[in-house]
Amino acid sequence: MLNSQLRFKTVYRIVGTESGRTSTTILKPPVSIEKEGIALQTMTKHEAVGVDAGGADLRSMFIADPGFVFIEADSSQAEDRVVAVLSKDWGAFEILNKKEFKYNDHGLKDDRHSLTAMDVCNIRFVDVNHMYRQMGKKTRHAGNYDIGKHQHMLNLVKYGDIYISEWRAGKQLEAFHKANPNIRGVYHAEIQEALADNNCTLSTPHGRRRTFFNKWGREMFKEAYSYIPQAVVSDNVKFAMLRIRKQLPKRDFQFCQESHDSFLSLCREYLVEEAKEIIRKEMEVEIDFNHCSLPRDYLLSIPCDIKMGHRWIDKSEDYPDGMK
Q: Which of 29, 103, 208, 269 would you call most buried, defined as having the most Cβ atoms within 10 angstroms of its Cβ?
């Protein structure tokens, strides 16, 4: 996987998905004589609960060149913010935009995912641990996009090593929709209306259009529910990268990886402060929702979290040169 230049390689497919998201794969003929590289987007930044090794552990192999640092820009709860706009859940932004948090004995803050965990698991904040927080996060994702109880149960196992019954997964989704009635009552209902009124075509604030050819029904609706949020977040990052590229010298700033709602770059140490300012400004450009299939008189700015370090893994005692 590692070539003679001590570089990992990957191939990006800009038409890898129907939502406009990219996908990655290994290099193989005719692009390369021999198979090499990795599908870089599959190297997750989050460990599964109860698993000793995973994508985050593998990331420790990636070390910045001498005189350079890694800068990682990550859109904060991006798809959830888009869904909140489309469902006209304006109260959600009081939580999404919080700056001050309470912390429990597990070291977790009372953010959106923790509060969702309290709703769907019927627990107090003091009882929210990392497992419950993951359940809250995955349940919100499932509820936003109408993922059924069986698939929700499987996703908890696959992405969180969390085992619950299908019945319990269904109860979590029921509790989620009871606490978030606008998801089905506004967002899902208006998506179906837009499909019926526009020949099964949806458009995003960035002008991306998609026509759905599936049979009319729930499976097509589920694809449609996820389309605008995923496309908006992905396009917002890619357009920001293009603007950033024009403002920073190519020899001292290079993009290494793009992963839908985030990107990784190599930056010379002298350029770090200027790069951080430009990255934050471009990633947080307002998105005008007046022009899409579900028009909203709202300008959404998605906050950008920035990490830096000499090694592509979170800073810890084991990795003092990691990202922080």
A: 208
